Amino acid sequence: MRLEAITFDLDDTLWDNGGVMRRTEEGHYAWLDAALAEWLEERLSEQGEVAHQAGTRGRFAERFPLEAFLVRRQRLAGAHPLRRGDFTWLRRRALADLLGEYGLAAEHAEHWASRAMERFMVLRHEVTPHAEVDELLDELGRRYQLASITNGNVEIARLALGRHFPVAIAAGELLAPKPDPRPFLAALAQLRAAPSRALHVGDSWEEDALPARRLGMQAAWIGPDDRALPAGIHRLGHVRELPELIRWLERRR
Length: 253
Ligand SMILES: [Mg+2]
Known about the structure:
By secondary structure, the protein is α/β, with parallel strands linked by helices. The protein has nine helices and six strands.
């Protein structure tokens, strides 16, 4: 077959994401807790007695531990099914709600939710791509059209790797997270490639391999060797094995 386009999942495909998410989650919440406490203290000393009562409310993260934030996001996702994949929206909304319940006025709750999300996005982008990835994409980019398709909130343009991806689809923000076919179709339309001439690479069986295959794309699934593969889905142990698969696909008639 002749391949024209390759689409890539990002998290846990081009880098290991587990540690990144944990650091980001804990890091931005701890930052918010500390920055907010400092701000409240300054306000208390400016406003004196009247605001003194507010000082007895305790720290934000004591009142709402990280676990409570997670539960709130899940509840919001349940209440707003269309937004369930728009993690940035869910996070900002949940934070603003909790901050409001903590006692901040609406405008301050919105302000601190935004500041915390800025911090979140800085930490979220501190990813370390697998060592082979930059060169791999460089080579593939000479022969194929490349796109990224993520359900996550990494903006690939903020990373050095972004230069390899003229097309980057943020499926959650499209309100159509994978396995919805729309992000795949959007990428292929922008690359002007037919599904039958495209390969999708990703680590999720449900969100990468199966939906790509249903559209008639080839799928490279990065996962354990624990299941029978339907025709058109090819297993890789690591993204570095991709060139070998591509050579094999290109040789096939
Ligand atoms: Mg992934």
